[in-house]
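Two entries, shown back to back:
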Amino acid sequence: MNIQFFNEDINFNLRNQQLITHWIIDSIKQEKSIPGEINFIFTSDNYLLTINKQYLSHHYLTDIITFNYCVDTLVNGDIFISIDTVKNNSLRFDVNFEEELHRVMIHGILHLLGYNDHSEEEKEQMRKKENEYLDRLKKLF
């Protein structure tokens, strides 16, 4: 079990890394899965757009791209997050930056756990799970 945080082309410092790590591990265990090797890579919009084009053939900005390397219930993956888009979305949705960042982080974890957000039903379930785990994080602070 190893959760790490990296920056790719930006200077970003995730606050409360130990607490966030504990929260992520607990969230994965709550879903009856085993935390494995998970990397969070914080980037700019430009860097994430390049990845989106190169690996997914998508030509648009996004806040997160998740690469799933899970094996059975062992959760492994790389989660790329655009800090630029998270900042813009926090303003757009009128929430503080850290709350939006935590939502995006757990969103990536939920993707690794097998949750999708293609249909309206899936989006609703994903949002419900995000809120459930965000509530748990708030209790840790």
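entry 2 starts here
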Amino acid sequence: MSGPAPELHAELTGILSAYRDGDHGTGQRAICEAMLAFLAARPDALHRSCLPGHFTASALIVDPAREAVLLTHHRRLGLWLQMGGHFEPGDKSIVDAARREAVEEGGIPALTMAEEVLELDVHEVFCSIGAHTRHLDIRYLALAEPGAEPVVSAESLDVRWFHRADLPTPLGEDIPLLVERAFGHLAG
């Protein structure tokens, strides 16, 4: 199977080079620099077959009232997480990959995606390629339209809306900060 379009590698380099985050002790600047170095060293960095690690794209979906987030209870990992996953050959852009993953895993086709990156994250996983690796995740914010009803995908045990102050367990350890960052972004 072929991997994502080579143009996405160049696009991601540009996105990360332009990424400006206040950091505020969250390590975003260091993560960004490490991601840029990895991209420079690995032309296959967006391919899931890249065993040292590979980039993924995800989206935290917020409800129209801006009170709740949509999380998936990931079947393989057993944790409540944002929607996200690997780059695919048909992805037209980095944000397009995040949108595709959000639609596939959340079942909500009408999403308004923020164009700017919300957060960067690197985490160890036992990936679908059957090996321990790292996911270098590019995270976006997505807003659902009124009346949006999630649908459970084959990758999930459940998909539900949770009020931002009442998140479920077991929860991915990075999700509370991601939710806080999203609502901070929405506030201004």
